[in-house]
Amino acid sequence: MSARPDRTPLPRSFFDRPVLTVAPDLLGRTLVRRTTEGPLELRITEVEAYEGESDPGSHAYRGRTARNASMFGPPGHAYVYFIYGMWFSLNLVCGPPGHASGVLLRAGEVTVGAELAAKRRISARSPRELAKGPARLAAALDVDRTLDGTDLCAGPDSPLSLLAGTPTSADLVSSGPRTGVGGAGAEHPYRFWVNHDPTVSPYRAHAPRRRST
After folding, report:
1. Which residues of 62-100 are buried (b: 16+ CB within 10 A; e: fewer)?
2. 94 vs 180, residue with greater confidence
3. 197-211, pLDDT tens digit by residue?
4. What is the pLDDT of residues 172-192, one digit of tens each?
5. Relative to the CA of 83, which of 4, 61, 136, 162 has its CA 20 to 30 Å away?
6. Residues with Cβ < 8 Å from 186, sequence gap 6 or more?
7. Residue 8 predicted with pLDDT over 90
8. Cα-atom radius of gyration of the chain, to the nearest Å?
């Protein structure tokens, strides 16, 4: 019989490490989202690391702005952004204050509150699709810009927190290029996922968006 996931909240020191150390260590952890309708929990199965001002694929590559300010720390906070005028994405800030690194949560398994998630993800054809991809994950967990800057280490009253869960052993973790990242950051092997997990999203190479004329 497998052990139950560990319910111990992860401390700020977990996030205050290099982003490429934190990213694979997030796999198997439990993200808790508390809403007015009830709690949801997610077993994280896919992530992407972004190294900040040294990373051409990062929002912080060109420096600090009002949009990306949460990326600059302190660690253990949420960075939520709006993309393409349609979707939100949830990132966890890592490293020391001022460094601007973070991990994008790309996919996971909803283990608590699947009924609530399904109400927000009516197009999902099965439970495994509820949070399969970063926009779907955010929608399933009711994540938007109001959660930008949320402290995941603030205790049980915080709308977001991270529990120890069941860390994924290194032999079950794969890595490769990030999905949809173009330019100089395209080939960085900063995407990490749980091997053969059905909730992991399919890889898609970067495709330049066409501009209307």
Report:
1. eeeeeebebbbbbbbbbbbbeeeeeebbbbbbbbeeebb
2. 94
3. 999 998 877 565 554
4. 999 999 887 877 777 789 999
5. 162
6. 57, 177, 178, 205, 206
7. yes
8. 16
What confidence tier does 49 reach under pLDDT thresholds 50, 70, 90? very high
Strands 30-35, 173-176: pairing kind = unpaired
Reduced to 3 DSSP states, what percent helix, strand and coil does the chain have, rounded to the nearest 5?
20, 30, 50
Contact 47, 23 (CB under 8 A): yes
Q: CB of 102 within 8 A of CB of 19?
A: yes
Place of tokens 């699947």: 114
Tokens matching residue 77: 């906070």
Instruction: Give me the residues paired with residue 41 across strands.
Output: 32, 112
Q: What is the mean pLDDT of residues 154-161?
A: 96
DSSP string, 72-121: GS-TTBEEEEEETTTEEEEEEEESSTTS-EEEEEEEEEEEE-HHHHHHH-
Among 118, 120, 149, 156, residue whose Cα is nearest residue 33: 156
Query: Quick one: CA torsion of 117, 118, 124, 127, rounded to 10 degrees?
Result: 80
DSSP-derived 3-state class of residue 26: coil
- 8-state DSSP, 208: P
DSSP classification of residue 193: E
CB 95 within 8 A of CB 73: yes
